[in-house]
């Protein structure tokens, strides 16, 4: 809950005044209480001396000298009446055994009086209050020492009433002072609170972009100087922001044009370069193998067949690029059809087998019949790129395993391409499909990698409605790298699967 500053100051002032009044009233009332106590003790001490003097005079005026105890027993009632008349106070006399020998007091003794009496019989003064009466018991002195005790009842009602009046006066005066001070303080601090509120509103307006045109507070003190400073600050911020907005708009337009042009160039060049690079890589590998093994008729047949396929593919790609350039398009068209995955994978592996043999790599295929709905050229591009990566980033004498499986319940075909090369680090798994990202810069330079291959593969896979993911090696054959492709099965595969079930 928000509490205003003027209320805080007013409450603080009221609390300070209450504390002052309480302390002062406590000191004054304590002084009054001590003064009353001293006054009562003085009066009763004088009365005690008067009683002792009268008792001794009476004892000496006796014609026959008696024991002190006998004297009190015979004359106690008379002495109590005389002493009460002379002092004006109710008096009771006791011998050393605590027995009352005379009294002008009509009330009966209580257990508290008995305890106080026993204390006074030890030649000590004792007293305590009972309501509006003070019971005062002092030693009664005789010629031969203490002969008993005298009890006097002193009325203290007037003292209590005076104390109560002073206490009430302090209470009403304190309430009046605190109330008046709170009102005056609230009104006084309200002027400062209004000024501070205006300064806060001005700061909020500047923060929201609504700049002030004059000082929010016109005072000849620190708050006025602060208001003037906020006004100057608002003017400077407004001018600077307007200039920044103008420059930002110009820069934004230039950046958007450059970014659009750069993106178009990168995407177009990357797509074309990878489209052309993949078949050329296969052709180059077979040319190098033919140069090494000129007398191998089987290699010659395979090379002639695959080079012819790749050359035809290059020709079709050139035609497609020329067609897209004429139409001013920057993306390859998709022509979906039913594609038999096993046949296409065997074709892709056959095209890349020459390059694999060049690096002494063994290529193993474990394939099942499966038909998916996809663009054949895009699918070939995906397989060729992944196989090319499996060859480039493998180890000499390593292995490449290509396998697939059917998930009939999920209606999916799963394709895995494994290579036994160095595994991709965990920190690079999330970035491996980003454009221009390479795990090892030095290895990328040696193999000619640009970091676009996997990015384009992912784009092609997603256009075919599939997904690509990087698995942690091969669960059956240890470390390495496995790329898993998942595509939806075509209706023909689903029908075949249902019949087999």
Task: Describe this entry's structure for a reader.
The chain has 501 residues and is of the alpha+beta class. The protein is 60% helix and 16% strand. It has eleven helices and twelve strands. The chain has helices at residues 5-60, 68-87, 111-120, 157-207, 222-292, 297-327, 341-358, 376-392, 441-447, 453-463, 491-500, and strands spanning 91-95, 100-103, 126-130, 133-142, 145-155, 336-340, 362-366, 371-375, 399-407, 412-419, 467-471, 481-488. It has a five-stranded antiparallel β-sheet, with helices on both faces. Helix 5 (222-292) runs antiparallel to helix 6 (297-327) and helix 5 packs across helix 8 (376-392). Residues 442-448 have low confidence and may be disordered.
Summarize the structure.
By secondary structure, the chain is an alpha+beta fold. It has 11 helices and 12 strands.
Essential attributes:
alpha+beta; single chain; 501 residues; 60% helix; five-stranded mixed sheet; five-stranded antiparallel sheet
Strand element count: 12
Largest sheet: 5 strands, antiparallel
Helix content: 55-70%
Mean pLDDT: 80
Rg to the nearest angstrom?
Answer: 57 Å
Characterize the overall form. Answer: elongated
Question: Largest beta sheet: what is the strand line-up?
Answer: 2-1-5-4-3
Q: Which structural category do the helix and sheet elements fall into?
A: alpha+beta
Q: Determine the number of helices (DSSP H or I, runs of at least 4 residues).
A: 11
Distance between the amino and carboxyl termini = 71 Å
Order of helices and strands: HHEEHEEEHHHEHEEHEEHHEEH
User: Low-confidence parts, pLDDT < 50 over ≥5 residues?
Assistant: 442-448
Residues in β-strands, percent: 15-25%
